[in-house]
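Re: protoporphyrin IX containing FE structure - here you go.
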Amino acid sequence: MPLPRPPLHPSLPAPLGHLPAWSSEPLALLHTGAEAARTEGLDVFGLNLGLSAVVGFSPQWNRAVLTDLETFRSRGSLSSLVPYLNGGVIVTDAPEHALRRHALNPSFSRSALEGLTAAVRQKLPDFPAGRTDALAWADHAVRDLLNVAYFSGEFDAELLDRFLAPLRRPFPAPMRPHPRTLVAVRRELLRLGRLRANEPRPDLLSTLIRQPGWMEDTRVSLAAAHDTTTHALAYGVWHLAQAPQWHTPEQHGAVIKEVLRLYPPGWMGSRRLRRSLEWRGHTLPAGTLALYSTYLTHRDPGLWDGPDHFRPERWSHKPPAWAYLPYGGGERICLGMHLAGLLLTETLAALPLLRTLGGDATPAPGLTLGPAGPLWVARA
Ligand code: HEM
């Protein structure tokens, strides 16, 4: 029996039948697919994206995808199609993946990052007086703070902006750094790496350069860090401006969790099936693109009360296992989750009281999920 799937585009060949909706309104397509799956008592549905794809959204599916690294491979997944992410640890598969992660993990551990807190605090951005777009502000703030955390602020700021800018273009614009920019980024990394080989600084690059493949991992992790953290910060600022009663350092933890539940920047994780797999009575053939939808899981009415509402108070209780995965899970869990947590917590703690002035907070999925924007706010 074929998998349930959303209706196909009437005038396209069937194997391409979901491509237009995938690029123009992917969240609506996901909701339609999940409804079709639920009608048949299933937790997966099919998509025809030129390549045969299966999308799952239950905790059981998430657990399988994120823990069975022999079956669910990263190479050949959607990340391999994005030049920014096609490299380093992101597309390294088991068994080499574990070695590469073990080498990188200490640089990004909670205890290693403690040494960065003082430097981050010193460079926290001021919030401007007057009407401000929280999305544009978050974009600059995160770029500058990443420069501090990785490079003690020594990376050429204009080059960093040029490198990261294409990531912010809306889907499906090509997200490809200009080849000349890439050459300049490599040259800059080499320059900063050499300086640290002689004289280490209290920054990430000083420890990263000790690993083989450090240039690639520095570059892809910067790309993985920027948009994700920017979008989470922009939504955090927006919700604090809307609901200032949550704007206390004690409550920011719950606010960040709730923002990452409602708008998981990593809205869709992708793998490729290395072998065929039996799932709930269906055979998923080898080579299938296997997707897990954090967005659908985080808004599943069977898992969450009022899933579409911003309710930080829900975090007084722990969610079911594998129902909340803003940073993925298992061995490939986000390398930068503690760094993101540090930047978000410190930045929110330094914000003045704000109020919203209008804008468009609708989630707009691209490479990562963020607000359509702008998000106009001002000091209260
Ligand atoms: C709020 C901010 C962030 C969110 C929501 C986020 C989300 C994620 C998710 C969902 C994954 C797993 C993808 C998958 O396996 O399917 C991931 C992996 C990854 N993230 Fe993040 N991320 C964030 C910030 C960062 C930062 C600051 C860095 C900087 C180091 C980073 C670097 C990476 C890397 C290198 C991986 C691949 C890990 C591997 O495959 O072993 N991320 N992230």
